[in-house]
Every structure is written in structure tokens, then in C-alpha cells.
Amino acid sequence: MWRRAVGLLLLSAAGAVIGMAASVTFTTDKIGASTVTVPRCTAASLTVLQNLTATTITSVTVGAIPSACGGATLQVTVNNGTTNSSGSAAVPAGGGSVTVTLAVAQAVSATEETDLVLVGP
Amino acid sequence: MKPRALRTAAALGALLVTLTALTSSAASLSLTSQNFTPYLTCTVTATPATTTAVIDTTVKQGNANGNFGAVNTFTVSSGNTVNQRIYIKFDLTTCSPAIPATATVRLATLRLYVTVLPAACRTIDIFPVTASWTELAITWNTQPFGTTINNPASGSRTGTFNVGTPAGCQNLAAGYVVGATVTTDVQAFVAGSSTNFGWMLRDDVEGSATTRTDTYSAKELATIAQEPQLVVTYVTVP
Fold it and tell me: Per-residue pLDDT tens for A47-81?
């Protein structure tokens, strides 16, 4: 019974959307394109330090994060050319330093790529 | 396996844009976005000990025709006719993915593990090398900067750090030194405006009456936790 009710509810919502879409009118025959800079919390010189246990990278410490990034989520992926592993952690309100533990320790190689993404705040 | 999705996201720098409203006019289409700050880092580490991605050695005034490219340590020393300099180079072409020539280098850090510190706080100067050299051939007499001490002048250094045991010195205990920033040089290497021949490190004042020496772990030591590293953090979207 409840499934039927949910179904009706979804159908009603879909109908509403369709109704709105049907009312869209184009007032111009030209379509423009533009590029908008995605907002970033910083362009600072973040420090990146791999933390080792024996011959593997177990975590990455990212430092010098400004307070503007406080509350963001820091996502880290380390790729050693063979495998990769990720982790994430919250940035403290005041910024500073964050250590992200990798899901799987990565063997140290001659060259590693570390991708950092600050999402938010 | 490469983290393609994340790298693509970093390259585009434009994910997380979401449609929030569609109203009766196309002109009123609105978008909202979220801060999205991608950085990429390439870390070049002198491992294994046989790698050619990193070459390092010492040239010694006191053994001017000797080559020390196969030694487990390298040293900077200031003394009366016994000055020593470090030559070190990291091959940035080993970075995968390659660092684009258009990339903006946010920070490049030279990481050297110091094992023996001088009793006086010494300033170490970093100079980009301007001619090629090889690890197993370079000597004091054949080094690109020549045999004159205190040359090139300190004013042309592109990086510097302090090392020594006295309190207040920037690096006063064994471990990776801090402060050896080479961002400007690496930006030029990446952009192609100068060729990467590595760096020469020397004491800021060579020819000290009292010999002052600092010793670092070389790649030949084969101890991963002490290997020379170059850490380059950059963005592909300014």
C-alpha cells in the first residue's frame, strides 16, 4: 500500500516538473557560452609530506592550509605507478595541518603522484 | 592503475557545479557551485639506490680529482682548502602524469636528510646548475661552477637554509631539513625557460678558518626513510 502511495507521489512530482518545463520560453535565438572560475578556498603553497612505515606510505600530511579552507574535506589519493589508495579528513576550522590516513599503504617508488582536493567549505 | 577520475577533476577544476533551479525562462537559469581546490603533487624519491631519476654526489677541494658519486653520504663543508659541495639532480620527466609546461608550481621542496650537523649554525646556499654533469665523473676540478670558492656569489642563490646544533638554528637535529624551497627553479624547469641540471649546495661562506661540515644521506645509502626527495606541488588550472 505504501509503495503505491510513494509511486503516486513521485508521479505527481514528475508531473509538476514536466509542467514547469513545458512553460519554458526562449526569448532569444542565440546561445552563448562562457567560462566561470570555480571558487577555491586557497591558492596557497600547501606542504605535502608522505609519512612512512618501513617502506610504505601510510598517510599524507598536508600543511599550511589557510583558515579559509577550514571546514573543507581534504581528499588525498597516492599513486605509486602501480596501485593507488585514497583517504579523506576534515580540515579544522582554523586551517593548519591535516593528516590523511590511506585506506591501503602504498609502497614507496621513485616517483609518486599525490592528488589533493579540498572540497568546500 | 591511475586515479583518472580525480585527475580529470583536477584538470577541469569545474566539477561540483549543480543545477539548482529551472524556472519558466531560460534567462533565469541559475547555477551554484562549491569551493573545489585541486592540487597535484609529484614526489621524486631516490629509490632504489640504482635509480637514475636522482643523481647526487660531493665534490671535494681536498681531493680535487676524486669522484664520490657512489658514496653513501654527501657533504657540505667550509674550511681552509677543504671545502666540499653537493651536486644533486632530480629528473622531473619521471613524473607521471607529466607536469604540463603550463602548470603553476605552488611549492617545490628539496628534502635532504642531515645526519651530522656542524657545531656552528651555517647557512647553506642553493644554486641551480647551468651545465650538465654526471654522477660518476664530476670532480672538484670539473664541476660546472669552477674551483673558485664562494663562487657563484651568495646573492645569486635561489634557496637557502640553516643547519647546525646551536639553539635557534633552523635545523638543529638530525632529520630532513626544512626550508630548502626551490619553487622558482622548478617553475622554470617545468616551463622550459631553463634546463634542469639540478642544484649545487655550498656553505654560504667557504674557506672557514674552523672546518664546518654537514653530512646528508645519499641515495646509495638505500634507506628509504632518509632518501633525498623533491616534492613538487602544482596546479594545472590557475
Answer: 999 999 989 999 999 999 999 999 999 999 999 99
Under an 8 A CB cutoff, do B2 and A79 touch? yes
Closest CA to B212 of B71, B66, B80: B80
- Chain A neighbors of B39, CB-CB under 8 A: 46, 48, 115-118
Q: Give B52 to chain A, closest Cα distance, Å.
A: 9
If one counts every other C-beta atom within 10 angstroms of the C-beta of residue A21, the result is 10
Interchain contact, B48 vs A110, CB within 8 Å: yes
- Per-domain boundaries in chain B: 1-37, 39-235
Q: DSSP label at B181?
A: B
For residues B181 and B131, give the distance between their C-alpha atoms in angstroms, rounded to a whole number: 21
Interior angle at CA B234, CA A43 and CA A95, nearest 5: 40
State pLDDT tens for residues B67-126: 999 999 999 999 999 999 999 999 999 999 999 999 999 999 999 999 999 999 999 999
Distance CA A26, CA A101 (A): 51
| Cα–Cα distance, B122 to B164 (Å, whole number) | 6
C-alpha cell at B122: 651555517
ipTM over 0.90: no
Mutate to test the interface with A, among B20, B41, B55, B234 (most CBs of A within 10 A): B41
Tell me which of A17, A69, A115 to substitute to probe the interface with B (most B C-beta atoms closer than 10 Å): A115
Q: Which residue of B has its CA nearest to A32?
A: B27
